[in-house]
Amino acid sequence: MYICKKSLIIYFLQQNKIYDLEPLKDILSKCEEIAFDLDFTRAKEWKSQDKKRVIVGYMPIYFPREIVHAANGLSVGILGGGDKKMIIKGDAYYQSYICHMPRSIIELALDGNFDEFDGFIFPSICDVIRNLSGTFQILGKGKFAKYLDYPQNFKSHIGGEFYEQELQHILDEIYKINQIKVTPARLNESIRLFNKNRQLTREIYDIRQKFPWRLTAADVYHIVRAGYMIPVEEHNAILENVIHYIKEDINQPLDKIRVVVMGAFCEQPPIGLIKTIELAGCYVVEDDFLLGARWIQKDIEEIKSENKLLSTLSYAFLNNSTFSSTIYDVDNPKEGRLLELINRRNVDGIIFAAPSFCDPALLDHPILQKACEENDIRYVSFLYNENTGQFKVIKEQIGTFSDSIKLWD
Amino acid sequence: MSTRVTKEKSMLIQKEMISSLFKELSTAKQTGKKVVYTFVPGNISELIRAFDMLPVYPEINALQSGMRKKSGKFIHDAEKIGYSEDVCTYVKCDVGMILNGNIGPTGEKIPEPDLLLLSYTGCFTFMKWFENLKRLYPGVPVALLHTPYQEGHKITPDMTQYMVKQLKEEVIPKMEQVSGKKYDEDKLKKILGNTNKVEELMVKIFDTTKNKPSPIDAYFAGVYYIGPINIGFRGTGEAVVYYEKLYEEILERVNKGLGPITPEGVMEEEKFRLVIEGPPNWTHFREFWKLFYDLGAVIVASSYTKVGGVYDNGFRVNPDKPLDSLADYCMNCYTNLNLKQRVELLSNCITKYQADGFLVNSIKSCNSFSAGQLMIMRQLEEKLDIPVGFIESDLVDPRYFSYSNIKNRLESFFQMLEQRKIIFNN
Ligand code: SF4
Ligand code: SF4
After folding, report:
1. Structure pTM?
2. ipTM (interface pTM)
3. Contacts of residue B368 in chain A, CB cutoff 8 Å?
């Protein structure tokens, strides 16, 4: 069994089958390029093809992209500038003790990277994102900058109704721009496409859960993040293609521990950090890096004639959301859900990786870590910024963690 | 500076109110009174009182620990059990205080909660805070009241209805269950009648800073003035008496042309009038204040005194619409206003109270206030052409109070104001 590299073509020979991995490699590098395209080239190109198309940028974590799709729009995830954007102006907007995320977003906004965007959505996840919505309003970015208040009441006639009103406000804003009315038929088509998108994404995670060596965590990250930047139809095709390859018995397992990474749901870790985790002896089989893409955990029902337009989206949010630091959890404690996830993914340990100064993530740590201690689950934790450039210390820390688990077991 | 420091009657009333509340709390388990933990922004203590329960405010515990120089240890203890150095220090201080027996400012133990009323206005950390408290008090019910943000610069009927429904279907039933009493709307209306009077008085009190010299410091003394209404006396008869007395005393000062009272006596020369954004530092409160009054600076308005409610734009509770009023009150607290509204509010204060400068005290661990402050500063500077200053500290973490840094920055700021005055006078 060996890997043979011949010029640029990669073949993988296993159990007498030869897999040509070159097309997969191409897909992966395309995804990487799209994922970090801070000029949003594909989205802008897509918009330029039809005057009634709109682009709506949304901040982490979750946003029901179906509604924008149904209104002839493309919702694009705004995940900060990572280590790919030099901050010059952004630091003048945020003190050093505020996470890095808003300063790189402001930098992108001031540099004109979002100039063709029609609107912006700021889901209610923390005070930083909330106040960033005000900054966008003051700077006059987009035709609308809407703070989307997630309900923290989970009854359909209270929180559900409120959520539907919130979503309707967004549709009203888009309507003002392109005069496209969202009908049940249009929305159902969007629901089908995004259901498929979530199914395919879940499938990739499920395959990786069993065979984490078939794709690296960084590859998965690029694939999922690319979906934040392009039309869902195109992303679905990419996901199907990737699945086609990783269903095959490719690549070799290595002696690594299986971990889940928690706390990185908003400000994204630099890709170097994700690679470092795997290089230091771990397979990341579960994570919350791009949680929005998998936020809704079951298919969203299509609307039937007797339903209100946004009722099934609202039902899904109230009943089928994943757990998160930004959702009130008292009736469904997050430590229980984490333990369930650990069992399901059969992991050896947890890496708590959170952005510096991130209250939502960091205030969960004492709760989650206590549950780990009570259940003999080993964990390690560290902080990062989206533009952290040095991983030596983290590599050593994770290396020791993974070695200790291997030795212990 | 006059060195005569006598306690005003209102101060004595306030002292008495606080000590009786803590006394009542310390005996709550014996007397059977139920205890509700809740927060200052979105403080619906009228409803708590309507069920004859007693409110406790973890934020107030934290700030008092800061003033009593105990917060350093409490924060350290919380960090030892896994709380990050980076998070809100109020939360850590409160957790540390609980770990150390939950002894209140009067030396008596604060009783454990019978209900956690999570009414989180304008700050997400409140939600995280109570998620943590819930684990420290397992079995205690939580009633959640989610306050929508004024993102569209206004309160819509839908927002009010969303809150009223939560009050009716979540909060009130839980209160009934915990207190064993039925919701009595007439009683609530009566209590809100007092709140309405207090709100009127508060507006008048803080409006006296339009006088020159200003008879009060609307920040350093202001935090004492908002004390009763924020720590559980909303809607009580005692609060009405306190604020009437306070207003009377302040008017007397206006008539005599007196400046504000400081811990070292009456400030005799008012050199600079400032508007401040952001909470104060509690661990070195006296030193912090002294840096201002020593240099003749008086604060004529502050955003911090509006965290427990904003009344500047005419909002008052309406006793005839009790639940709608509570909802609108929550949505009207300062940090629930969007940035544009905050800029507008501060800008009105600067103009109305003829401030010479605008200062931000940025709190290291408070995203709710700090994120966006630099934008507010720029906006005010551009809009009003007013000198702006910036200092940094923390609420209750003594590690982040640097006396010399703050002093240097303030001195430069005051110099700038001084020069500007000279130029304008010429
Ligand atoms: S990283 Fe944390 S604090 Fe920063 S914007 Fe995201 S959720 Fe908010
Ligand atoms: S973040 Fe600020 S407003 Fe929120 S609880 Fe902490 S100190 Fe209070």
Report:
1. 0.95
2. 0.95
3. 127
